[in-house]
Amino acid sequence: MPKIYLSVAIVAASFCIATTAADAQAIKAPVPMRAFSAEEVAAVDMPDTAFEATPADVETYDKYFYFHRDGTNFDTAYNDISECDAVSSGINYYAGGDSYMSTYYATQYGMAGALGGAIGSAMADAIFGSAERRRIRRINMRNCMGFKGYDRYGMEKERWQAFHFEEGFGRVEDEKRTGYLMKQARVASGPKPKAEVLPK
User: Which residues pair with 152 in a beta bridge?
Assistant: First the structure.
């Protein structure tokens, strides 16, 4: 590995440790669960997840997938997905320095987990770039949602893009991000898919 990339990664990782640790000491309250009215839920379009899978689609299920859990209401699904999204996106380092979120996830998953996510994101950016960040985020989302008991289902790329996003070096703006997460929550709390459940 070229020395310059290693140096950048080490500096970025050190910065993340200092920032996240300081934030964790400053904030104490957990993030409250968001509640939606029946009207708000009804206003969220239900994405179309029905399609005839081709061999090419199946080969990309590691990239394009969605989640569902029986007996889950919209509020719970939205908050679960939002939590996993924050964890998978690098929390403090990548989410605009949100110390409130940083402390909450450090409490839930331990400082090692929070710092590990930040360090991993910094080093991945410095060494591999945005493609590696997207891959790591997908893996983290699978692990987090799987831990919460959600099943994973494959999706063709075009339908997946209608209610999901990918991030490289930049972060999707909050309003747009919330809209995507709400659609994902509609699917996660909606009717049970007829497709085959994929490995978590």
Answer: 67, 198
- Per-residue model confidence as pLDDT tens digits over 66-90: 999 999 999 999 999 999 998 887 6
Per-residue model confidence (pLDDT) at position 32: 72
Q: First CA to last CA across the chain, in angstroms?
A: 32
For 91, the token pair is 């929390």
Q: Tens digits of per-residue pLDDT, 139-153?
A: 999 999 999 999 999
List alpha helices for the chain, DSSP H: 3-26, 38-42, 55-59, 74-88, 99-109, 111-127, 130-147, 157-161, 174-188
Are 102 and 27 a contacting pair, CB within 8 Å? yes
pLDDT at 17 over 70: no
Contact between 190 and 46 under an 8 Å Cβ cutoff? The reply is yes
